[in-house]
Design goal:
Layout lengths: L1 H10 L5 H56 L1 H6 L2 E6 L5 E2 L2 H15 L19 E7 L2 E9 L2 E5 L5 E5 L3
Length: 168
């Protein structure tokens, strides 16, 4: 009896080719189901990260406009109105160039190292073109449009958010 067990043990040294192929087929089927789901999670996470960046930009510009209005009282409120854009190192436009430049500079300082480089140019960590446009009316931030990595995030003045693929 002991001899039969030893002989049986010696004859079973490893897995057969069929067993290995079956395991590989099962793994391939599992991968076929999980990889597309994981790619969806990555895209969703990227979209949420860009939304957080857009909100940070909105807060920075509102802070800069509020500070400028507080410094110059009511005369700066309408002077700060306009459209602020940032594409690389390009500043925005508005009613009074000096105040607009001051608001743009202050906002870029607040975003320095996070959303922008230290020189104020748009930070492109993933080698994509990053642009944003902020509308200011009566010293308040209106719509914010943020484009990065093929996504476009729009935060409306009422707080509603739309996300999607960026159009050229």
């Amino acid at each position: 009896m002991l001899q039969k067990m030893r002989d049986l043990k010696k004859s079973r040294r490893g897995f057969t080719l069929v067993e290995i192929i079956v395991v590989l087929v099962i793994l391939a089927i599992l991968a076929a189901f999980t990889i597309p789901a994981m790619l969806g999670f990555v895209g969703d996470a990227r979209s949420k990260a860009y939304l957080a960046e857009a909100r940070e930009i909105k807060v920075a510009y509102q802070s800069a406009v509020t500070q400028k209005v507080a410094e110059n009282a009511s005369s700066a409120q309408t002077a700060a109105d306009g459209t602020y854009t940032q594409t690389g190192g390009t500043a925005g436009t508005g009613a009074t160039a000096a105040i607009v430049t001051s608001v743009q500079t202050q906002a870029l300082k607040l975003l320095s190292g996070d959303i922008t480089n230290t020189d104020g140019t748009a930070l492109n960590t993933d080698n994509t073109n990053t642009t944003w446009t902020i509308a200011v009316l009566n010293g308040r931030i209106g719509d914010v449009t943020y484009k990065k990595g093929g996504y476009q995030i729009t935060i409306k003045a009422d707080g509603t958010v739309t996300t999607g693929k960026a159009t050229s």
